[in-house]
Amino acid sequence: MLWYVQNKQVFTAQELSDEFQLSIRSVYRYISDLADLGLYVESKKGRNGGFSVLPNQILPPVLFTEAELFSLYFAIQSLTDYEDFPFKVNTITAKEKLLEVVPKEVKRKLFQLSDHFQISVPKQAVSAPFLNQLMTACLDHKVLIVRYQSIKQVSQKSLEPIGLYTSNGFWYLFALDQEVNEARHFRIDRIQTLSVTNKTFTTSIPFQQRENEYKPQVPLELVADLTEAGVMQCLENRYLYKGVQRNKKGKAKLSLMIDKTDIPYTADFFLVLGKEATVTAPKELVSLLEAKVNALRNIYS
């Protein structure tokens, strides 16, 4: 009834009676109970009378079930692995505040459950500066001028920020690069300088588009034979898992399109896999793997 009344703003006792299958007498009793929670209404008499929620009042407290409290507590706890977070969220004080208001029995269960349950996320690998400024720029639709350190070079970019997200311990900015008019992903720890301009923009690119399937600009087909251990490793990789295939004989391989610029990253991944994967294409990747293996052989021979 609390949520129903707040959404309606104007209502009658008969509406509440019909909605919640209550007598009119019970409805008036519940309206009095809602006032005790901090939700005050004004009564209007006459033919078009009823109730209206009074403005400028303190919102009533949110009512959580025990299961919802558990979910909220462990969600807050999972954020402690991030040293940087937008708006400087202090997860320690957030947990303390939550524990301060829950009943003693729920607090006891939370502490007991903490000994047997944990939501683990990858720890933040490197510092991510500018999170607050970037988040504010996304909300205000302000164009950014950044000095960005890519794998190959340092360059200045004009970006239209769309949103922030975190993956595998790194913070990313999803933004439209005005120079190429294309939405791209930028590691925030690689942003050396940031300037928020007064220019505003309107974009039709939704934040959810960041999860769209990646389309290589210079596509190359990646093919590799996998052992069972290699399959497991590739399935855990957010870029390669879609390419894992098994045939009727039980053998497995990896087959998907990658961008030519991703070859160095891909080579390092397969170097870690060692004998669990045998890359057969593209030739550029095979050549780079051979060079890396020879470099290691020269170090340890």
TrEMBL record:
Which superkingdom is the protein from? Bacteria
Pfam families, per the entry: HTH_11, WYL
Q: What is this protein called?
A: DNA-binding transcriptional regulator
Taking every annotated instance into account, which residue ranges of this chain make up the domain Helix-turn-helix type? Answer: 3-49
- Coiled-coil ranges from the UniProt annotation: none
Please list the residue ranges annotated as the WYL domain. 130-195
